[in-house]
Amino acid sequence: MDTIKYTLTEDQMPEFWYNIQADLPAPMPPVLHPGTGQPITPKDLEPLFPTQLIEQEVSQQRWIEIPDQVQSIYRQWRPTPLYRARRLEKALDTPAKIYYKYEGVSPAGSHKPNTAIPQAYYNKIAGVKRLITETGAGQWGSSLSLAGAFFGLEVVVYMVKVSYHQKPYRRAFMESYGARVIASPSNETEAGRNILKQYPDSNGSLGIAISEAVEVAVQDEQTKYALGSVLNHVLLHQTVIGIEALAQLEMAGDYPDIIVGCTGGGSNFAGIAFPFMSAKLKGDRDIKFVAVEPAACPTLTKGKYTYDFGDTAHLTPLVKMHTLGSSFVPQGFHAGGLRYHGMAPLLSHVVDLGLISAKAYGQLDCFAAGLTFARAEGILPAPEANHAVKGAIDEALRCKEEGASKTILFNLCGHGHFDMQAYMDYQAGLLRDTEYSSDEIAMALAGLPVISQ
């Protein structure tokens, strides 16, 4: 029988998250205090995060146990299925074997609950009453809203304004879980008012929304900030994806030669890639890792690896990452979850070590790839996930050209059920490709902070 779906039982779920920092050949550059320029201490992070998340952020421990309370909620949708894309292989006429890990089966429709649930849990046991966050396309805001409902926490979401208007059903989805959703930039924070004073018609950005959320969080002891990507503890939580995929590919009697994922902040890519990268770091396997990003927000392919702020108002610590400059405000292309000026510092560090290659594609090619995938496999991907689909299809076609039978694994990080307007616009010919030009990049990078490190 040609198996299509590889599933694990609940008792085969991962019991630990994998921390790649324990296996890296060189440590990450330190996070710096924006005022002193010196490495921050755990105490500096206490206004934003509970103690246990801070400990995970700085941990060098290889395996970190997943709490039972988190496991019990994970079991609502985990383990997620691994599919062999046999119909896509046939449609492409490729000798490659293509597998995808499907995270769209979660209640929120994406991989984001993998970190939303533990973040809400650690805040709940720390006595926190309210969580503040930002969201781009709305998948992270939906996931934290879900987690807030599970743990009885108030949730406030600053949603990038262009997505707030593009995706009313995603907004309604968050509100159904009890969250309050605010279009960013808003008049509710000093950071938002300053942006609106300078740019009254601003579409917003993740950097601006982060500034608003952080500003509110530090003003109230009962409120903490939650982030859906970028930070070390977020990437850590997502490794349940790759750990499950390892076991499922063992069931299939296979192992990937190539691993592909889309990248915005870096969490879903790290989730699928880092558990496999452990074998590469040990010299046991030679795996090609491909991070795919939008040409309109080319953080890895055109950004600079340097210290920068994670937000527009410069309220966050300074981290060394691939960045387009914190003043970068992307155009309103449809992959809202990938519209961020920076990349996860841990993922940026791994790229700098030469372990990952990066590619950028325009949104038209990505939507075309998404429809090719949907018509072969039956699942309509989120616009963000279309970038991974495009990357995987290109690798499969390269195998066809070379006559090479390689195994490709990619992370289908979410479905596109709340993105139908984007697909309607694409099929009506209303979408356009945009690229972040060299002049615009140079202008944004000219405002980078000067660091003596």
Uncertain residue segments: none
The percentage helix is: 40-55%
Classified by CATH, the class of the domain at 5-10 and 67-109 and 233-445 is: Alpha Beta
Strand order of the largest sheet: 1-4-5-15-10-11-14
GO molecular function, one term: L-serine hydro-lyase (adding indole, L-tryptophan-forming) activity
Enzyme class: lyase
Modified residues (N6-(pyridoxal phosphate)lysine): 112
Keywords: Amino-acid biosynthesis, Aromatic amino acid biosynthesis, Lyase, Pyridoxal phosphate, Tryptophan biosynthesis
Concise account of the structure shown:
This protein is an alpha/beta fold. It contains 18 helices and 15 strands. The protein has a domain of 262 residues: 3-Layer(aba) Sandwich (Rossmann fold), CATH 3.40.50.1100.
Can you walk me through this structure?
The chain is α/β, with parallel strands linked by helices and 453 residues long. It has a domain at 5-10 and 67-109 and 233-445: Rossmann fold (3-Layer(aba) Sandwich). Helix content is 40%, strand content 16%. It is built from 18 helices and 15 strands. It has helices spanning 51-58, 68-74, 86-92, 113-125, 139-151, 161-166, 168-176, 190-198, 206-217, 232-238, 240-252, 267-281, 299-302, 345-352, 363-377, 383-402, 420-427, 438-445; strands at residues 5-6, 16-18, 63-65, 82-84, 97-102, 130-135, 154-160, 180-184, 223-225, 258-262, 288-294, 304-309, 318-323, 357-361, 407-412. The protein has a seven-stranded mixed β-sheet, with helices on both faces. A four-stranded parallel β-sheet has the order 8-7-6-9, with helices on both faces. A two-stranded antiparallel ribbon has the order 2-3. Helix 4 (113-125) runs parallel beside helix 5 (139-151). The longest helix has 20 residues, at 383-402. It is globular, with a radius of gyration of 20 Å. The mean pLDDT is 93.
